[in-house]
Amino acid sequence: MAGRGDPPEGTPEGFPGGGEDEYRSVVFDEAFVRAARLQEFSARERMGEHAQAVRSLPSGTARSGSRQAFLLVLLVLLAFGTAVYLGVRNPYQPPADQRAEPLRTTLVRLAPRDPVPGGEPARLFARSPAAEYRVGAAGINPPVAGRTPHFAASQVVAALDIARKYLTASSLDPDVLTGATVRPVRLLLDPDQLAQFDRSVETPADDGRHALASWLVRFDPRQVALADPAVRVQGTLRFEETGPDTLDVTADHTYTYALRPAARGTGPVAAASLFTVHRVVHFRFDREDLRAHRAELLSSTTEAGPQACDTDTTGSLKPLLAGARAAEAGGGPAVTDPYATDRPAAPSLCGALAPRAQPSF
Q1: Sign (positive or negative) of CA dihedral 309, 315, 317, 318
Q2: Residues 283 and 104: beta-carbon distance below 8 Å
Q3: 243-266: b (≥16 Cβ within 10 Å) or e
Q4: For residues 307 and 325, is the Cβ–Cβ distance under 8 A?
Q5: Most confident of 56-60, 250-254, 267-271, 355-359
């Protein structure tokens, strides 16, 4: 029977009589020796004058670590080079910081040559050029959007949507039309144009920059009320790329409103009349405008009537209501038809309202 310290197969061959191997703890196998970082010089090598007892061997682990570090640096350089290459080739560059230009405004009053027709709103609409127009925002239809050389189709859609929302807020919102608020319009403007807009609200002026009627449609609620909140609308929206970082949208629409005098007392309801506004608004969008969902207005031309030529319409429009007539029709023999879109604006600040623009009886 083997002793307590012997292996099951007995004492290893070559060791004396089953005794404990007193050198077993200091015997190293071949793998341990090969992995040693130090190697003893031979007796001949140690006989030199300044000979050392041992020499260091190169570390396989150190060589492996250096190789891994080199590969890591190479991968970082490759990733950086790829990012630079894709940045140069990418057609959709980061937003450019461009300052919005001031809005240029043109306001044309259209004076009638005959008394303004009156009646019930439905009958007036049916007998006017607006008979087939759509109601409200349904008349502001963006075209089918496609991509441009530097803007994706989704960015074109965003620009058209912002323009449509601006036109809806500034031409159709009943609270804006009656002067109760300007907030829905202001929220959609580029911050660079807010100071100009605020001045147009507070101190409007016919100076080509601060006519409020070029930013939005407003009637004086002390004089005019909406006879029918359903505004008739028709027109077009067009887009074009004007630079690698700018996308322009042009809105050309005619809006027809049914108005009557503001209510006074409990007397009979006055007859309604139609008032027509032809607006051409030129929008410009850079990439930051699209991201922030806001609009920059380059120019706005408004032709509106029936109005008298001698009225101040820079703050709010001053419609001539049913039965009224202008003291003097403007524009000489030429007439301006606000229902005729896609044409140059009237050159004068007061034109003659075309007879066909009024309801016929």
Answers
A1: negative
A2: no
A3: eebbbbbbbbbbbbbbbbbeeeee
A4: no
A5: 250-254
Which residue is listed with tokens 């004089």? 223
Q: How far apart are CA 38 and CA 57, in angstroms?
A: 6
Which of these, 34, 2, 253, lies nearest to 130 by C-alpha position? 253
Phi-psi region of 162 (alpha: psi -120 to 50; beta: other; left: phi over 0): alpha
Closest CA to 201 of 186, 184, 221: 186
Q: Stretch 175-193: mean pLDDT, rounded?
A: 96
Q: How many C-beta neighbours within 10 Å does residue 207 have? A: 9
Name 49's Cβ contacts closer than 8 Å, sequence gap at least 6: none
Q: What confidence category does residue 80 fall into, taking pLDDT thresholds of 50, 70 and 90?
A: confident
Neighbours of 150 (CB within 10 A): 16
Distance CA 318, CA 311 (A): 7
Per the rule left: phi > 0, alpha: psi between -120 and 50, beta: everything else, 138 is alpha
Quick one: pLDDT at residue 52? 59
User: Which has the closest alpha carbon to 251: 279, 285, 284?
Assistant: 279
Phi, psi of 171 (to 5 degrees): -125, -15
Ramachandran quadrant class, 94 (left: phi over 0; alpha: psi -120 to 50; beta: rest): beta
Cβ pair 122, 227 in contact under 8 A: no
pLDDT category of residue 12 using cuts at 50, 70 and 90:
low
Q: Is residue 322 within 8 Å of residue 126, measured between CB atoms?
A: no
Residue for token pair 């506004």: 277
CA distance 160 to 141: 9
Helix ranges (DSSP H) in 293-339: none
Length of the chain: 361
Residue whose structure tokens are 């608004």: 281
**Burial, 278: exposed, middle or buried (Cβ in 10 Å; 0-12, 13-18, 19+)?**
buried
Biggest CA–CA distance in the chain, Å, is 141
* Helix residue spans in 142-247 (DSSP H): 153-171, 174-177, 183-186, 194-202, 212-215
